[in-house]
Write a structure and sequence with these properties.
Length: 349
């Protein structure tokens, strides 16, 4: 045996020793850091198993499962917009207000002013895009913190849709008579006891497009790089201001698409609809494994996170638990998810 084989260098010995001493918990930490969607999949599986035991066969009835899918469409599509922002280490507290504003604009134009529904829909998308552009400009060029900017625009957009709507609801019958296109996402296919709506399919289409954008384009790589280390990204030639502006603008447009899904889900157009969208979107993103510190996460994780929220709320409701305690359970999920994210991030510390 040669001396090189019998006596490895000091560097090799240290490396081998460090690898051998890594504990199972440490290895798990590295695996979760590398594959962040593992945790939400496990949580979803545990939730399904637990509620199947607590509720029984009612939980897995086709109608109930399809109801969960319908309930999470709004959370999922707004969560997609929030994911894009949080991946850049930002946050958007105005996503719910943008969605409701776009809803009111579409409804008022199409029902009250006689604008063709398809054109009203496009104007609503443009309004959402404009709101996102405003957020992006204030953050990138005025250099204000995302939390403060979107907290302010949340109030501005909220006051705007209350003023524009006159705090009045456009009834479902009026929408169906004057602008049926706006309720298109409510169109459903009955399959046995299940009911699959176009809103659910449309949400999956938006998710697939966002996944492709993040995972198969240069822009997606720039988003991750900007969130992971903006200074390093800038030095490598990425225009981080342009990336951030594009992300907030795209998030606003996606929120407007969520407005279309919301109209189909609710039927009516009300300035009070979707009031919990901000919290729900952040909940889905965080539970889905996207780091609040940016640079790590996925669209798939957000979809699973939205399903987790839907499964827990539905299961707790079927269990007879008061709505107050349902919110309590979701709050615990958020705290556990953030704590787990902090622990996983120590891998790169």
């Amino acid at each position: 045996m040669s001396s090189s084989q019998a006596n490895p260098t000091g560097a090799d010995a240290v490396a081998q020793f460090a690898e051998e001493r890594r504990s199972p918990l440490r290895r798990l930490q590295h695996i979760l850091h590398q594959y962040p969607t593992i945790v939400p999949f496990v949580v979803l599986g545990v939730g399904l198993l637990a509620f199947s035991l607590i509720v029984g066969n009612r939980f897995f009835q086709p109608f109930n499962l399809s109801l969960i899918m319908q309930q999470v469409t709004i959370i999922a599509i707004i969560g997609i917009a929030q994911t894009l922002v949080i991946l850049t280490a930002g946050i958007d507290l105005s996503v719910g207000a943008i969605m409701i504003l776009a809803t009111v604009v579409m409804g008022r134009l199409a029902v009250s002013m006689g604008v063709p529904a398809e054109l009203a829909f496009l104007i609503g998308i443009a309004v959402g895009l404009g709101c996102g552009v405003l957020n992006g400009l204030l953050i990138t060029y005025i250099k204000l913190p995302p939390f403060i900017v979107t907290l302010g625009t949340w109030s501005i957009f909220g006051a705007t849709f209350l003023w524009y709507s006159g705090s009045q609801t456009i009834r479902s019958q009026e929408v169906a008579a004057e602008a049926p296109f706006l309720q298109l996402t409510a169109t459903a296919i009955q399959w046995g006891g299940a009911r699959l709506t176009f809103g659910t399919v449309f949400t999956l289409i938006v998710a697939a497009a966002a996944w492709y954008l993040l995972n198969r384009t240069a822009f997606g790589r720039h988003v991750y790089a900007t969130g992971d280390d903006p200074e390093a990204a800038r030095l490598s030639g990425i225009d981080t201001r342009r990336v951030l502006l594009a992300v907030y603008s795209l998030a606003g447009a996606i929120c407007a698409l969520g407005a279309w899904v919301l109209i189909g889900r609710v039927g009516a157009i009300s300035p009070t609809s979707g009031g919990t969208a901000n919290l729900d979107s952040i909940t889905a993103v965080v539970i889905g494994g996207t780091s609040l510190f940016g640079g790590r996460g996925s669209i798939v994780g957000t979809l699973i996170g939205a399903l987790i929220v839907g499964v827990f709320r539905n299961g707790l409701a079927l269990s007879g638990l008061d709505a107050l305690w349902q919110e309590f359970a979701v709050g615990i999920l958020i705290i556990v998810a953030v704590g787990l994210d902090q622990w996983i991030r120590k891998v790169s510390a």
